[in-house]
Design goal:
Blueprint (H helix, E strand, L loop, with lengths): L7 E6 L7 E8 L2 E9 L1 H11 L6
Antiparallel strand pairs: 1-2, 2-3
């Protein structure tokens, strides 16, 4: 993807004992389109990968 700019938005929710959900959206011309969604352990694992600073264990 040479020469392309993109804005990806990620939302994670695991409140009130509900199943974890991670939603991925793309902002384009002021609109947000949902492009993917994950739930359960997969959502939690992706959230941890995205938020863990390099060098942290």
């Amino acid at each position: 993807m040479k020469g392309k700019a993109d804005t990806i938005l990620v939302s994670f929710d695991h409140t009130h004992g509900n199943i974890p959900v991670l939603i991925v959206g793309r902002k384009d011309k002021g609109e947000i389109d949902i492009i993917n969604a994950f739930k359960g352990n997969e959502a939690t694992e992706l959230y941890q990968k995205l938020t863990m600073k390099k060098g942290e264990v």
